[in-house]
């Protein structure tokens, strides 16, 4: 009796995925690049893949998505830490080395510098973290028909509007 040949494995049509060769071996580098401030677009260029492919892999490959998120979390934590320091104010030490005429260390001068709390940092934090209480700009919905009618304005009101438009 003749032996049956094993069924041939079907290959998927189309181009092979670059994930195993262009991304998987570089997950730790990708995490580092995200953490050091590279944009996702620049990382895709460094890896030699297109932006759409990069984002497709982010959606489809959990280990890749996790590596990128870990890098982003560290950056976000550093940014928040810096913002909080700016909000609270801080004290810094500046060291100045003083050399003698032979170029050797003679002494070190230490200056203490106090940076007061940064009002802009406080406002930024409050607007973005506690926006329901500190939203300065009110949001208004305006309906507009598309036309502007000047018929109901008096001559004085028309002249005032004209001056506003001219910037006077």
From TrEMBL:
<dbReference type="GO" id="GO:0000150">
    <property type="term" value="F:DNA strand exchange activity"/>
</dbReference>
<feature type="domain" description="Resolvase HTH">
    <location>
        <begin position="14"/>
        <end position="59"/>
    </location>
</feature>
<dbReference type="Pfam" id="PF02796">
    <property type="entry name" value="HTH_7"/>
</dbReference>
<dbReference type="GO" id="GO:0003677">
    <property type="term" value="F:DNA binding"/>
</dbReference>
<dbReference type="InterPro" id="IPR009057">
    <property type="entry name" value="Homeodomain-like_sf"/>
</dbReference>
<protein>
    <submittedName>
        <fullName>Transposase</fullName>
    </submittedName>
</protein>
<dbReference type="InterPro" id="IPR006120">
    <property type="entry name" value="Resolvase_HTH_dom"/>
</dbReference>
